[in-house]
Amino acid sequence: MKRLMLPVLLLAVALPGWVFAADRPTVCVIAIREDITHNTLFLVQRGLREAAAIRATALVLDMETNGGRVDITEKIIKLLEQSPYKTATYVNSKAYSAGAFIAAATDKIYMAPGSVIGAATPVMLIPGQGVQELPKSYEEKIGSAMRALIRATAQQNGHDAEVFEAMVDADIELSRDGTTISPKGKLLTLTNDEAARAFGEPPKPLLSAGTLKSLDELFPTFGYTNAAVTTVEPHGFEVLGRWISLASPLLIMIGMAAIYFEMKTPGLGIPTVVAVIAFAIYFLGFFVAGLAGQEEIVLFAIGLALLLVEIFVLPGFGIAGISGIALILVSLLMAMVERWPGAPMITWPELEIPVLRVAGGFVGSVIIMLLLGKYLPQTSLFQKLELSTSTSVAAGYTTSAGTAASLLNATGTAETQLRPSGKGRFGSQLVDVITEGDLIEKGAVIRITEVHGSRVVVTRVA
């Protein structure tokens, strides 16, 4: 009885901690410490995937940015609006331009002492020339689109849309309770005190839900006391992921062409290694970008396994090969598509660019395959890889290059599958042969049509 008491007491002490840990809220913090670029988009995507992995209940943007690209900002806003989390922005020091737009896409905005938010005006960045003013007509068009975007975003998240519009449009005069906050002719920029000032009846803060000294103060204020916090910070992998995603069609071409090369030279191994490296880099890029996960990688592995079974086990090219290629293409496509828990069904605009990239890579690989099939068997490199200086023998017979020449136009059978190389039997002679690129199954009737030294070319006899 005494032996049982100690485990029971330990369980009684530990149980409240387990229950508390299970009920403890989780918050994912994404630290934005740069201008808004593709790297920021990849960072937010990675943060959303991390939030899903830890089953977060809230998402906080730790913001410090001078602004950035409008197109990237739109994508980030869309991701935040689709996310199932309660969201907040903590303006650590500044959230200009695109940073203010992104903040408007969160449920609450908090600011640090001495921080500022606002001043969003479109400019044009020309490589080598820096920032340039937009043409008047184009500026009006972009400005109108930005006002509509920020107005809709602010309204959807319960913010004062006119405040954000005044950050974009200098023609808007912002006044509250008889006080001019931003005169006409100037873009609105707010300090933390100005943003937290209350107006109306009942009083409501102009923009900020409060000035907080640190993120640690934000969590209980936001309703997450004693939260378990995971911080996602930018690192060099975002840059790597961006470049890999841009090179994705090329990686698809290399990988698919290498698989085809392996089909033509079974057992060689080098093309398989090249294919594995190309596709590993491909999935690494989209994994870093926060898009690809284990599901896409598993799907690709199954497709590749089916394709290898078709190449090395099953004759011809049937269901396994077609299914393998289909699964590979689907996995490559889905690795590019943005999908988040709670997001609506995938639409064509989200699929368009991934489909074009995968299709472009696949078409390019088909062109490479056709060129390889036509010219590869004629190259000296291929001959060195596939043929020896003298042919192999069976049953005690040796076939030299001279003997092979004497077999010109001889008819025999394929001793192995010819993909395109293999062995053919002509009477008692077992000869290393190669086709002109066609696959010939084991047992088929073949004829020697060309002999060039040790290179023996055969065709199928109809």
Q: Write out the CATH superfamily name of the largest domain.
A: 2-enoyl-CoA Hydratase, Chain A, domain 1
Q: Determine the N-to-C terminus distance.
A: 88 Å
Strand content: 15-25%
Low-pLDDT segments? 1-22, 124-132, 387-398
Helical amount among residues, as a percent range?
A: 40-55%
Dominant shape: elongated
**CATH structural class of the largest domain:** Alpha Beta
Oligomerization state of this entry? single chain
**CATH architecture descriptor name of the largest domain:** Alpha-Beta Complex
Number of strands: 18
Judged by helices, strands and strand pairing, the structural class is alpha/beta
Number of helices: 16
> Which fold does the CATH topology of the largest domain refer to?
2-enoyl-CoA Hydratase, Chain A, domain 1
Mean pLDDT: 78
**Gyration radius, to the nearest Å?**
32 Å
List keywords for this structure.
2-enoyl-CoA Hydratase, Chain A, domain 1, single chain, disordered N terminus, elongated, 5-stranded antiparallel beta sheet, 462 residues, OB fold (Dihydrolipoamide Acetyltransferase, E2P), alpha/beta, 7-stranded mixed beta sheet
Could you characterize what this model shows?
This protein is α/β, with parallel strands linked by helices. The chain folds into three domains: 16-232, 2-enoyl-CoA Hydratase, Chain A, domain 1, CATH 3.90.226.10; 237-376; 380-460, OB fold (Dihydrolipoamide Acetyltransferase, E2P) (Beta Barrel). It is built from 16 helices and 18 strands. The strands form five sheets. Strands 1, 2, 3, 4, 5, 10 and 13 form a seven-stranded mixed β-sheet that branches. Strands 16-15-14-17-18 form a five-stranded antiparallel β-sheet. Strands 6-7 form a two-stranded antiparallel ribbon. Residues 1-22, 124-132 and 387-398 have low confidence and may be disordered.
